Amino acid sequence: MSGKGVREGRAGVSRRGLLTGLGAAGIAGAAGAAGLAAAGLIERDTSAQGDLPRELSRGRAAPEEGRPPALLTPTPAHVHVVAVDLRAERPEQVSEQARTVLLLWGEQARELHEHGLAEIVEGAPTQGLHPASLGITLGLGASLLERAGLAERRPGPLADLPEFASDDLDPALCGGDLMLHVGAEDPLVVSAAVEHLLGIAREHAVVRWSLPGFQRAAATAADPSATPRNLMGQVDGTVNPHPAQAQFGPQVLAAHPDGAASWMEGGTYVVVRRIRMLLDDWFDLEPHQREQVVGRRLSDGAPLGGDREDALPDLAARGDDGEPVIPANAHIRLASPERTLGARMLRRGFSYDLGWSGGRRQAGLLFTAWQADPRTGFTAVQRELDEGADALNTYIRHEGSAVFAVPPVRENQPHPAHDLW
Q1: What are phi and psi of 274, to 5 degrees?
Q2: What is the mean pLDDT of residues 156-179?
Q3: Residue 236: active-site member
Q4: pLDDT tens-digit map of 340-357
Q5: Rounded CA gap, 234 and 222, in Å?
Q6: Exactly one of 177, 236, 373, 390 is catalytic; which is it?
């Protein structure tokens, strides 16, 4: 499958050129409609599309302050995260292939956001569909910098994650040179975009792992603004910094004003985890037992002892029996900022359901955590969950893991790191 106007890869690409290509790809993620970053509100398109919701009529909005499409609100109903490895072996060849792939993806992402796949690929499966708020975000793995001979440019936050007691990782489901994060309101739009982007890069890159995910669609929700639930029936994603809040920047966006990692100034880091849920065991529990494991009510997501979902958990509260209202090993207690030295991150969780394999259910959570530094965000929280013997660990298995650097998106200019590479 090939698109109109796709340029062939260029030979003799320098290491510096790799980040230039990454900037081009990041800029591509900026194309789309304005207004989606506004507090999750659904705007109406007043153009020729008539009364079609804005998030369906076109691609993702131009990111505010360099933010990639994956950080915009509202969160898409469908995503697909793909990690690829470049086929080359020698550092200079790795750099050349990386630049080629990023330039291809960057150019096509612009077209996809602006026009949709059907307008640039004849016979595309998305004929008759709008872009559906399509958003494409690219990430850079530590393995790429190492393989391209750029280990000295690797930012500290891109460090490998430590081993955790809850890990049951499959190496085939971990890592990757590049990340492709595609989200939209329609699953066919996501699927077709992923197929197209991987198809044009097939000569240079091979898929290492991929995982599609979904949330409930806003159209089927009684309250589209309500926090979604995961496959365990729990409200998932309550305590999250919002893009409109002042603390969003320090908690989510990277600060590298000087030095070798300055190419990531204003970008973000994402931890991706494939977490299989043991749903048979989970639903064998009584509802009140499930609430004790997580520390929140099933009915409305409020912390135990609280009156509403966004109430602060009272970790000191005790019941008539003298026991903590929120159990000592409850998930929300161990993950609380009070236990993790104030660790915060933007958690975007999506359910995945791949059916059954060998009689075992392959379903769970495609967990993405966007943060300024995984060492003080995800790692701090996960370590506390380990050390505190998180009650939820009995019912989940962490089977896949990766960390990617997501550079800032700058309109009409290359990635800042091109001057340093």
Answers
A1: -95, 110
A2: 96
A3: yes
A4: 878 889 999 999 999 999
A5: 16
A6: 236
